[in-house]
Amino acid sequence: MLKGYEEYMDTGYDWIPQVPKTWEQRPIHSITTLSNERNGKRKDLELLSVYREFGVIKKSSRDDNHNVESQDLSNYKYVNSGYLVMNKMKMWQGSLGISQYEGIVSPAYIVCKVDQDIIGKYLHYLLRSSHFKIFYNRISYGVRVGQWDLRYNDLKNLKIYLPTSDEQNQIVRYLNAKVAKINRLISAKKKEIALLKEYKQAIITRAVTKGICAGVPMKESGVEWIGEIPEGWEERKLKYLCSINTGDKDTINRNDDGLYPFYVRSPKIEHIDTYSFDGEAVLMAGDGVGAGKVFHYVSGKFDYHQRVYNLHYFKDVCGKYIYYYLKENFWRKIEEASAKSTVDSVRLPMLLEFPVVFGQIGEQQQIVSYLDAKCSAIDATIQKRELAIEKLTAYNQSLIYECVTGKVDVRGIHVEEVPEAELIEEMDEEIVAEFDDETSEEENTE
C-alpha cells in the first residue's frame, strides 16, 4: 500500500484540504498565458475538440461529434502541443486538457500557453482530477446547466500546488503506467460487452427468422434479407398483424411525480399524470436519435409521446414476439435502405409494409420464453462487465487525484516508462472503444 508524505499543510480549499508541505503554491495565472492566436489563412491544421472523458482529441477521431464547424475557419483559435484548452461551457464536467496535438479549436474555447517549467502532462492530470470539478462547478454561471459559462478571469486566481519538476515527472511516469494498464483492462471489458451484444443480436435474429427447433424443413420466405424460414411459417406485412398509432403528448406534459409511465423517444421512462392506453403494446421511436428503435414492450396503463409509435391489438402474433422481431430487424433494415448511418424519422408506411415472418402462436410463445431466458442471462453478464468498468474508472480517478494532490507518495517507486506515442495510440483506441459502446445505447432524446 502506498504511504503518504511526512508533513502536510492546509490549502484553505474544502475540496482539497491538505497537500504536502514541500509543494509550492502557484495561482493559475502565474503558469499560464491566455492565447488568442487565430488560424488565419492556414489550411493544414487539424480540427480539435475537447471531451470530458479524454481531454483534447482530434475531432475526426469521433463519429458522434455532430457539432458543425464554420465554413470559414480563419477565426478558430490556434493550439500547439502542450497548450491548455478548455471548453468553458462544460468545464464543470471536466472538459479540458493539455493538447498532444497541433491544430485549431472553436473560438468559444479558452486556450492558454503553459510555462515551460511546468510538466504539461502533470498539469493535465491535475486539472482534470475529480475534485477540481467541484471548483469549476462553483465558478461556472448561467441560466441553466446546459448553458453554463466560465471565464478565464474566474479561473486565473485558483491556487494549485506543485511539487518539483523531478517529482512531477515521477508522478507522471507512475500515472502513465497505471492509467495505461487500467485503460487496457477497460478496453478489454468493452470488447467483451460488444461481443456479448453481437451474440445477443444474433440469437434474437436467428430465433425470429429461423425458429429454435433444429432440423425442421425449410422454405423460401420470399423476403431477400430473411431467406429461408421453417416450412410451417408464413410472411405477412405488419399492417395485417396489429394496429399502429402515435401518442398525443409532448415532453412538457411529463411530471416526475406522475402516477403513470410516460414513454418518450428513448430508453428512459418518464412519468405523467394521465394515461391514454391500457393494454399490451410495443413502442418505437418515430424520430430523433433513436428513430426506428424499439425500446419498450409494455402491458398496463401508460401514456406516450406524439412521435412514439404504439403497436397494439395484435392478430395471430404475440406482442412480445413482435417486440423481439422488430427490435433487431427493423431499424437495421431501414438504415440499409436509406444508405445513411442514421435515420431521421420513421414514416408510418415504412412500418405498415414491413415484412414479418412467424409460426403458430404456440411456437411464438416458445421462442419468446427462450429469448427471455437467453437475453436475461446475457444482460446479466453485460451488467457485470459494466460494473467492472465503473469500478475501474472510479479507481482510475481516485488514483490520479491521490497522486496529484499528494495523498500518496510515489517518489522512489520504479515504473516502466510508457512512451508518449503509445499513450496517444491507447487513447485513440479507448476513444474508438468508447464510441463503439455508445452507439449501442441511445441518448435520452425527448
Automatic annotation (TrEMBL):
KW Glycoprotein (keyword) present: no
Species this protein is from: Methanocorpusculum labreanum (strain ATCC 43576 / DSM 4855 / Z)
GO BP annotations, alphabetical order: DNA restriction-modification system
Family: Belongs to the type-I restriction system S methylase family.
Domain named Type I restriction modification DNA specificity: residues: 20-193, 230-384
Protein's recorded name: Restriction modification system DNA specificity domain
InterPro entries in alphabetical order: Restrct_endonuc_typeI_TRD, Restrct_endonuc_typeI_TRD_sf, Type-I_RE_S_subunit
Record PANTHER family: TYPE I RESTRICTION ENZYME ECOKI SPECIFICITY SUBUNIT, TYPE-1 RESTRICTION ENZYME ECOKI SPECIFICITY PROTEIN
Annotated keywords: DNA-binding, Restriction system
GO molecular function: DNA binding
